[in-house]
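Support case: C2E complex. Customer-provided input:
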Amino acid sequence: MTQPLLASHLLGSALASAWLLTVYAISVQSMVIRRVRANEREAAVAWWLGGALVVGTGIWAGSFLTLVALKLPVKVGYVRDVVMASWLPAVVVCAVTLWLQTHVRSSVKLRVMGGILVTLGLCMLMFVNASSIMIQPGLLWDGDRLAAAVATFLAGSALGSWLLRKDLSRPPHQGRHLAVAVVLGTVLWGGMTLQVSSIGVAYNAVCLSADQLSGESLQLVLTVAVLILLVMTHVGTLQDARALARAQVLSESLQEAKEALEEASQRDAVTGLPNRLGFERQLRDLIEAPRDAALHLCVLRLNVDGFHAFAATYGHALGDNLVQTLALRLRGHVREGDVLARSDTDEFLLACHGFSDERAMTVLAQRLQESVHVPCLIQDQDIVVSSSIGIARYPDSASAEQLIAHSNDAMLTARRAGGGVYCFYERGMDRAGAAQVEMQRDLRHAVERQELQLYFQPKLRSTTGDLAGVEALLRWHHPKRGMVSPAEFIPVAERFGLIGELGLWVLDEACRHLRMWHEAGLDIPVAVNLSVHQLRQPDLEQRVREALHKHRVPARMLIMEITESVAMEDIEASLRVFDMLDQIGVRLSIDDFGTGYSSLSYLRRLPARQLKIDRSFVRDLDSSLDAQAIVEAVVRLAHALGLKVVAEGVETQDQADILAQLQCDELQGFLFARPMSEHTLLNWLRQRGKPVPPTQVRQEASPTGARREADDDDLVTAWSDLEATHL
Ligand code: C2E
Ligand code: MG
Ligand code: MG
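Agent response - structure generated as follows:
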């Protein structure tokens, strides 16, 4: 008969090794969980598998050492294959624990099931461990202690789940980490010790595996080998954490650099405002913002008229100064939530919200224009600029791209209208815009490719029919389009900042012809047309002087025509320019009279010498008494103001007769001659009995002939015989 003998004795050193390995394994386990969580998919799987193997080995070694600690009354040996087989449940238990802990969102149900599985695994591990001792009769188990061990495993799983979750949800902290490992490791070790201590043997028990692996050798090998393994893994986790932290810092600084670059690429260096890119991004944000913010959104594109000519004349530093001053002023109109940007050298974009009606937008546009128009004191110079504004509304223009493009179309239309105005986007503007953009591209090369030419249209005295002068009219021989009308390309040149260059070319060319004709014995005053943009050119006086000096032409031979609407639009600027040109001696003429709204008092103040009645009045002369009455009144008014009157667009003899009767001084129109090339003009003159020496003129016409520069004295004395007998 056999009596159970409960093991009453456990070996202290083996138990200590078991505790050490178990606590260390738990500690490494939490480090591995952090690695699994921190790494990308493939590395995470590798950490999970490797971690399960290493930590499982640690738990297995710890559990086995608790069995080794069991001191039985017989000499005990452990069957090697069974010892090895018990390793598997340990690894599975760890794999499950790692999986549960790395899947942060795993449900309570799943965690409970995981806890039971871990408990079963641990029990199984201990039973397999114990079965490595082959003993006859078999091992005896104390039921109460076994139950206590199972309860400890269960409690340990629950506590482990909770503690690890808490610990891992916070940044790593060594003290806390160690405390968790000690608590959990000790609970686990306690359960294992309880389970082992429930083992007993009969008095007459014989160990059949006594000659197999001995407890002492197992204790040493397992402790040393597994400790090394755990230490290596520990170091591995630390290295990985450091490498990841370095990568993180690197990627953060890269991200910062990228953001800084992005920020710089979206900012204008001169004004500090967002540039076009930045504006687009912020506009998109505004549109995508909750409905209220996007409602009543509008984009205003403000173009500084004639900026390119200004910068070309005064230099880019002064141009930058001007832009900075304007940016500061525009900022004054920006409310919270609006976006102001500098989208181009001479352009600002403003996105404003909360504008429910067109009137409010109009008021804003006018205010912007007023503040731009206030003189800027830059390097002791008073600079006055005007602006053209295009306005697009959301949701009529339904996206950021459309708002930007449509505000551009509207702005171009405003510039086409002569600048200094605002314009709302309407459908169809974009098509016209595209064609004009193409035209300006070609126009940029027109001067250098010698595609431009001056035509001349004679003006005749109404009383004698003598030649009073010619009007120089610009022609563009486009290689594909053929002859392009100035009515078409002059507005494009104005809109795209090319008029300054074209105007100078015309001025130079007109003076060159004046000189050539004079040397051929022909003194014909030439009238050139001035654009509104040239009127605003601060160096116009200088340029006119230079052209006259260069060709040694007396100023009185030159007439400058400015259309009435332009002259009256910016009266102060017109007065300034007219006065300045008058002082040089250049004569001034008000073109297309009747199409603008002249104020009599201003008309009196303008030092003009000539007034050209628009052809729309002349056209109706022979059919409408009203037209006759108007022309008569204009002639009278002009004469009272000391102005000569020229009638444009005279096409019929009847019109010419009526105009002569109404005492109009000069006549210009197809009835007498169309605008023609210099060559045709000279032939025309010859036909009318003017002596024109052909060879001399043709030689001089060569633009390559060197011209003598003249000084001021030359200018005063040149053609002194040519007093103003023509007007
Ligand atoms: P504008 O200064 O009023 O020039 C008169 C225009 O009337 C010319 O048109 C001329 O060809 C046309 N014309 C003359 N007589 C008659 C006629 O009997 N019947 C009709 N139907 N038309 C007549 P063009 O040459 O096409 O020039 C149009 C406008 O382009 C000019 O009007 C002027 O404002 C502008 N322009 C022409 N050359 C220049 C230039 O060099 N600089 C600037 N800024 N503008 C220019
Ligand atoms: Mg004209
Ligand atoms: Mg005209």
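The longest strand covers residues 467-478.

Case will auto-close in a few days if no follow-up is received.
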